[in-house]
Design brief:
The protein folds into five domains: 49 residues; 55 residues; 150 residues, Ribonuclease H-like superfamily/Ribonuclease H (Nucleotidyltransferase, domain 5, 2-Layer Sandwich); 62 residues, no CATH class; 60 residues, no CATH class. Helices cover 39% and strands 14% of the residues. It contains 15 helices and twelve strands. Helix 1 packs across helix 3 and helix 2 packs across helix 3. InterPro entries: Homeodomain-like_sf (IPR009057), Integrase_cat-core (IPR001584), ISNCY_transpos (IPR047797), RNaseH-like_sf (IPR012337), RNaseH_sf (IPR036397). It holds the Pfam family HTH_29.
Length: 458
């Protein structure tokens, strides 16, 4: 066994030395030593062999004293010089990519990050000062800026299903301007609520919202459309500015109002015994009056910035879903899996190969317009329909209804995939979940279905 000599060892290496010495002298089993050191049995055997051959020096890390792979000063200096000149405001990842693609310098991303940090060109996120959101002064007049937001909550607790409350609050006074209960936050629900707001108060100068897809086109790579959402297009026609907040703190008035409503309004609905959206919408003006009496602030200026509707501003026509469709050579166009046949005339023949607008109203009505003129048409639904009633035995009626619900849900999903849902209508077929649909189908085999309905629905 070689002598230990003068060897500098870390505390971890000293502990390992004592354990391996015990193994070599027979005072400790190799299995127990492996468990203590967190190593495998083979590693302990190799360390014991190195100790017998080289003594304590055999247990010292062989990497000690070695020169690791280090970038040359010239390479790092060149990379840092390029970054200073051309990529000073780039992040480390992007700067690393540009060094590799443009300049042929292959450096690691963390290496570039370290160089930029030491040069003061990049501040790690953990060292950055937190963002401070300072309070914003209120607007001066009522109707100058109205904050809008949707709050999804169990407003009726267990008495009814969860729904969404659309909240309109004036920025100058924190006054509730309008409340509207709707099944979901959708374009058509905002159409209905905003139309009612304008009928009550007039047109505000601007609406202030979040970046939800109803208010803003969030797809940067969109290749169609004019950059407006359907709701944004409606506001543009009404000459109402649409502003999207960069953070939830920016529209804090409506966010804080939502918290208050989720407490007070829920309890008031319980005291009033209201459990439906229709009843809640009818009672909402009473709650708004009491809320504003308690929490509204006086404006700095008594002037009301709301504007009346101008001549020609038809709210029913403005608050519609619109899409362009091309007229075929046989005077047809397709929208939402339905073919529309235009009436053959000299005027409509001039539209062949041109695009006309399809107006869909919140109540489901479809209107085809060209040059602001409604065109007569006949609709032909491409989806399969049952053209005669099925003869069903009374004892099998329940099973047949379950099958009908499954098939209706499938047909409705095929149709609704190409257009937005009118979630605020409160109407529609009963929809089964995937699990419920599978259970219904398992309970009815093909023989029962053929006997109950008497035909196959294609």
């Amino acid at each position: 066994m070689a002598g230990t000599g003068m060897i500098t060892m870390s505390m971890r290496e000293v502990d390992r030395l004592k354990t391996i010495e015990a193994v070599v002298t027979g005072n400790l089993r190799a299995v127990t030593a492996a468990r203590q050191l967190g190593l495998s049995r083979r590693q302990v055997d190799r360390l014991a062999d190195r100790y017998r051959k080289d003594g304590a020096s055999g247990l010292v890390s062989r990497k000690r004293g070695q020169v690791h792979h280090r970038l040359s000063a010239d390479l790092t200096g060149m990379a840092l010089s390029i970054i200073r000149d051309r990529y000073a405001d780039f992040g480390p990842t992007l700067a690393c990519e540009k060094l590799r693609e443009v300049h042929g310098l292959f450096l690691g991303r963390e290496t570039v990050r370290k160089l930029m940090t030491e040069a003061g060109l990049w501040i790690p996120r953990r060292l950055r000062s937190p963002t401070i959101y300072q309070p914003r002064n209120r607007r001066h007049c009522v109707g100058e800026l109205v904050q809008i937001d949707g709050s999804d909550h169990r407003w009726f607790e267990e008495r009814g299903p969860a729904c969404t409350l659309l909240v309109y609050i004036d920025d100058a006074t924190s006054r509730l301007m309008h409340l509207h209960f709707t099944p979901a936050e959708s374009t058509f629900s905002y159409f209905e609520a905003t139309r009612r707001y304008i009928e009550l108060h007039g047109k505000p100068q601007a609406f202030y919202s979040d970046q939800y897809s109803v208010f803003r086109c969030n797809n940067k790579h969109a290749t169609s459309g004019d950059g407006y959402t359907q709701f944004g297009r409606a506001l543009y026609e009404l000459n109402i500015e649409s502003i999207c907040a960069n953070s939830s703190q920016a529209k804090g008035r409506v966010e804080r109002a939502n918290l208050t409503l989720q407490d007070r309004l829920v309890k008031e609905l319980r005291l009033q015994g209201i459990s439906t959206m229709e009843a809640a919408n009818a009672w909402a003006p009473s709650f708004i009056a009491d809320y504003n009496r308690r929490f509204a602030k006086p404006p700095r200026n008594d002037w009301d910035a709301h504007r009346p509707l101008r001549d020609g501003e038809d709210l029913e026509r403005i608050f519609t879903w619109r899409e362009l469709r091309k007229v075929s050579h046989v005077l047809t166009l397709q929208y939402d899996k339905v073919i529309y046949l235009l009436q053959d005339s000299k005027a409509t023949r001039k539209l062949i190969g041109k695009y006309i607008e399809v107006y869909e109203y919140p109540d489901g009505r479809i209107e085809l317009r060209a040059d602001d003129t409604a065109l007569p048409y006949v609709a032909y639904d491409r989806l399969p329909e049952v053209d005669q009633g099925a003869v069903v035995e009374n004892k099998r009626l329940g099973h047949v209804l379950e099958v009908a619900q499954v098939m209706q849900a499938q047909r409705d999903s095929r149709r609704s995939g190409s257009r937005p849902s009118r979630a605020n209508s409160g109407q529609g077929p009963i929809r089964l979940t995937a699990v419920e649909g599978k259970k219904a189908q398992r309970r009815i085999d093909e023989a029962d279905l053929a006997q109950a309905i008497g035909k196959t629905i294609h």
